[in-house]
UniProtKB/TrEMBL annotation:
PANTHER family: DNA 3'-5' HELICASE (PTHR11070:SF3), UVRD / RECB / PCRA DNA HELICASE FAMILY MEMBER (PTHR11070). The keyword Disulfide bond does not apply. The lineage of its organism: Bacteria, Pseudomonadati, Verrucomicrobiota, Opitutia, Puniceicoccales. GO terms for molecular function: 3'-5' DNA helicase activity; ATP binding; DNA binding; hydrolase activity. GO terms for biological process: recombinational repair. CDD domains: DEXQc_UvrD. This is DNA 3'-5' helicase. One of its GO terms (cellular component) is cytosol. SUPFAM superfamilies: P-loop containing nucleoside triphosphate hydrolases. Its EC number is 5.6.2.4. It catalyses: Couples ATP hydrolysis with the unwinding of duplex DNA by translocating in the 3'-5' direction; ATP + H2O = ADP + phosphate + H(+). ATP binds at residues 31-38. Belongs to the helicase family. UvrD subfamily. It comes from the Bacteria.
Length: 654
């Protein structure tokens, strides 16, 4: 297979070229936003191919699966090597792939299902109650949410529960021992139900590497080159995984300490600092030219980050683009006026010929965007939201997926409960009893679980009011199961929709037809998969990242949180809600640490290529920190020469 000649010199600057063509070995690239880190990684893949490395020998880890796909599409353009022939994606998706293939080596059966965050919390809640039945009755005890955060944090930082509580959750100090017990019970429950949570995908990956030597050796030999984007946001667990995958130290990590925004999920900037110690002979490279933004946008971004109080690598970025107008800082009277300003400007931009997909509205927290969504809908401006209620998190989608999960993995109690709780007069206790009963019947009559659901003795146990529904669900599941082996996933999904659920949906929701439309779009989605288990896993994984709509709309502007805009770029960016108490958040101000918020602000403004608007409402009409708002401290700290102030209402000056 011939790789076409690529003129690397012409498409990269000297610093990037040095990184792309560096000798194999540990390589750390530290550079600011928009300097071409992701581009450098992409060209590195192409370069390796041109040197005779095979696609199968490269592992590419990115922050979203979409980012991996975009990079590999570009590699395909450059080299002709199909993107599909690489292993590329998020830590979670690669971990999932490995676990599905090799989990049995560490006692994880092949047909496990993945719990999404909400379901994991429910399983944890049950686990806690199995140890201490009335734990949650006491209002002073931590709730399932915080318990789940503690356990997750401990696992992602590779620390004990005790250490984690002392360091991050001191308010729960009195519960250390009990929480240790809960964590164990939770692990046991998951094992019984043959389910894993998101963290397990990483934890079990590391476990595979540590406890299944034949698997570890195979992949260590296979992946001769490991490339990691956004390295500043890896946590200790992820760093340990990479280190274990690459005893050969041929790792290329790129990152920007100023963009570390996931410490609340255990991301640790020390991973960058200690990288050279963990990988002797590390070559550290820098890139100092920014190709993304105008000098004016960059100057403002540099000013914001230069005020940081925490240590970091200093990097002064030079802009490559010609000079343009300064960023605008817009003071609106309230959130409604803020939205109207944005909409008016968006209309103008689109009239001027701007591609709507190149316009983004960014915000710190979901609730800030609610007004925006409402006003956009009212104004008839199409938007695509990549956060908030996501497609796969909607109840009707989850209900349908529960059908699929149960057919595929009858041990998945969570799916069973989700589905059968929809029946009249069935509460959690009853549902659990019915589940156990069905299991017993299956055993007694040597039936498959799904067939046992329809057994006379099972049906009799269902509350009279729900018996007809029970039989209808059981019938649907049976029909699904019958073609599950020979049919395609979309056929199975279609049967689920046509079965009991559509009649349930009609009775349960006024906007029945919209929901049915969603379900039907799921059929199209399912058609892209060859195997049901792959489909189910993908849906669960999509819940953990950006996935607003099923299909990208051509005409829509983008609405997204700053966290989810990481690594992306747009011609025009509106950062809304840039008031103290919103961005930085009230919480960060109260605890006296706004540095992560600052980095987040830096990420926000560095998404813009040509035009940047930073807006804040002067009055808070929706409850929240206070009635009158001040501009974000990150704006107040910098020289007013760096931006163009716009006041919509004269009488509210600052
Ligand atoms: P972030 O920190 O936000 O992830 P990054 O460092 O990964 O940014 P890229 O997204 O790779 O930066 O690049 C930013 C933009 O600059 C992209 O549009 C990219 O194509 C462009 N770019 C980078 N290097 C060059 C170059 N040498 N010539 C032309 N364009 C470039
Ligand atoms: Mg990048």
């Amino acid at each position: 297979f011939e790789i076409p000649e690529i003129d690397f010199r012409a498409q990269l600057n000297d610093e990037q070229y040095a990184a792309v063509t560096a000798q194999p070995g540990p390589l750390l690239i530290l550079a600011g936003a928009g300097s071409g880190k992701t581009r450098t990684l992409t060209y590195r893949v192409a370069y390796l191919l041109s040197k005779g490395v095979r696609a199968g020998e490269i592992l590419l880890l990115t922050f979203t699966n979409k980012a991996a796909k975009e990079m590999l599409d570009r590699v395909e353009e450059l080299t002709g090597v199909e993107g599909r022939s690489f292993w590329g994606g998020t830590f979670h998706s690669i971990g999932h792939r490995l676990l599905r293939m090799h989990g049995e080596a560490i006692g994880v059966p092949k047909n496990f299902t993945i719990l999404d965050a909400g379901e994991a919390e429910t399983v944890l809640k049950h686990a806690v109650e199995s140890v201490e039945s009335s734990f949650f009755k006491n209002k002073t005890h931590p709730k399932p949410g915080p318990l789940s955060s503690i356990i997750s944090m401990a696992r992602n930082t590779c620390e004990s529960i005790e250490r984690t509580i002392i360091d991050f959750f001191p308010q729960h100090h009195d519960f250390i021992e009990r929480i240790e017990g809960f964590a164990e019970a939770y692990a046991k429950k998951k094992k019984e139900q043959n389910v894993v949570d998101y963290d397990d995908l990483l934890v079990f990956w590391l476990k595979l590497l540590e406890e299944a030597p034949e698997v570890a050796e195979y992949y260590q030999k296979r992946f001769q080159h490991c490339l990691v984007d956004e390295y500043q946001d890896t946590n200790v667990l992820q760093a340990a995984i990479i280190d274990k995958m690459a005893p050969h130290h041929r790792i290329m990590a790129v990152g920007d300490d100023a963009q570390c925004i996931y410490s609340w999920r255990g991301a640790n900037f020390d991973n960058i600092l200690t990288f050279p110690d963990r990988h002797p002979g590390t070559e550290i490279l820098r890139i100092e030219t920014n190709y993304r933004s105008t000098p004016e946008i960059l100057t403002m971004a540099n000013a914001i980050i230069s005020n940081r109080t925490t240590a970091g690598f200093d990097k002064e970025l030079r802009a490559h683009k010609p000079s343009a107008q300064r960023p605008y800082v817009v003071q609106a009277m309230d959130t409604r006026e803020q939205a109207q300003f944005v909409i008016t400007r968006i209309r103008g931009l689109i009239d001027e010929g701007q591609d709507p997909r190149e316009i983004a509205v960014l915000y710190r927290s979901h609730f800030v965007a609610l007004d925006m969504q409402m006003e956009l809908s009212r104004a008839g401006v199409p938007y695509q939201i990549t956060s908030g209620v996501r497609f796969f998190e909607q109840a009707h989608i989850k209900d349908l997926v529960a059908h699929l999960r149960l057919v595929y993995n009858p041990a998945d109690v969570t799916a069973f409960l989700r589905l059968f709780l929809l029946l009249p007069k069935v509460g959690e206790k009853t549902a659990q009893k019915l589940y156990d009963h069905t299991l017993a019947i299956a055993k007694k009559h040597e039936l498959d679980f799904i067939d046992a659901l329809r057994h006379e003795a099972t049906v009799k146990k269902a509350p009279a009011a729900s018996r007809a529904d029970w039989e209808a669900v059981a019938l649907t599941l049976r029909d699904m199961k019958q073609i599950a082996d020979t049919g395609t996933p979309d056929e199975v999904v279609q049967i689920a929709i046509d079965g009991w659920y559509s009649s349930y949906l009609q009775g349960a929701y006024a906007n029945y037809s919209n929901r049915l439309e969603d379900l039907n779009s799921l059929v199209g989605f399912a058609a892209r998969f060859e195997e049901m288990q792959e489909l189910i896993a993908q849906i669960t994984l999509l819940n953990s990242e950006t996935s607003g709509r099923m299909e990208e709309s051509d005409e829509a502007i983008r609405l997204t949180t700053v966290h989810q805009a990481k690594g992306l770029e747009f011609n025009v960016v509106f950062v809304i809600g840039a008031a103290d108490g919103f961005f930085p958040t009230r919480r960060s101000i109260d605890v006296g640490d706004t540095e992560e918020e600052r980095r987040l602000f830096y990420v926000a403004v560095t998404r813009a290529r040509d035009e940047l608007y930073v807006l804040y409402p002067k009055m808070n009409t929706k409850g929240g920190p206070s009635m009158f708002l001040n501009p974000s401290r990150f704006l107040q700290e910098i020289s007013t020469d760096l931006f163009e102030p716009i006041r919509i209402r004269r009488n509210y000056g600052w």
